[in-house]
Amino acid sequence: MKTVADIMTTAPIVAEVPGSRSDAINMMVRNKLTGLPVVRASDGKLMGIVSRRDIFRKFDEDQLSLIMKRECITVTPDISVVNVANIFVSKRIHRIPVIEDGRLVGIVTPTDLLREIAEMKTPLTAEDAIRTTCVTAYEGEPLAYTVVSMRISDVPAVPVLDIKGKLVGILTDRDLFSDQTADAEAMLRLGIKDSELAGYRNVLPLFYAATDKYIPDETTVHDYMIKDPKTVFKKTPLNDVARIMIQKDFGQLPVHGTKDELVGMIYDVDVLCALTGNANE
Questions:
Q1: What is the pTM of this model?
Q2: Fewer beta carbons below 10 Å: N end or C end of the chain?
């Protein structure tokens, strides 16, 4: 059986403490990452982990040591892929530092495990893996309202419905970062000093939209959603779901039924039940 050592990313990119929110943001943007291990600058000891959602939750805090999660879960390189998949599924986290002899030697993410699932055969389908209540948005509602709803619900994406309840789009935390990046002053508020880095769509958009003063009152969900999103059928095998997520770099996909009705959302950590076997728990 494969272990974490076989799939992890070695020598991971890190943020350091003491450090600032801006330091972490710039490191994520430069390397197209959504989270980082945090180490002590003096000796490289792992101190915690920080993600874009941690920064979003503590929008007014600048010190990285006060934003990061200190009590982060770690694993050793010899833990099996099934055991680490169980951690991802039960804790619904998206990165785990790998420690050996007290040193940070790697990091493992759900994507590393999706590659394993894409190559395996499984009887489980998309509908078997849906584990969370689906939060939706209406395409005509104010974006500021939806952002608050996403933050309260702690979801990174919402399917968008029209007035008849038909799926017409998806709004993810990536999409909120799109055309606002042309404003150099706004980018400086984000802590991003190099405006050329602002085009990366997968870093810290919810941080930008965390307060309504940055969102014009007339802005609606329709203005930012991705129209006609990629979906999967409820009977799609999980190995195919894994392949799509890897190919498209998606962390979630809407799931539809036989009449194209929205059934729910499936997330990358949900797909890992193909390894653990604990579907719909």
A1: 0.82
A2: N
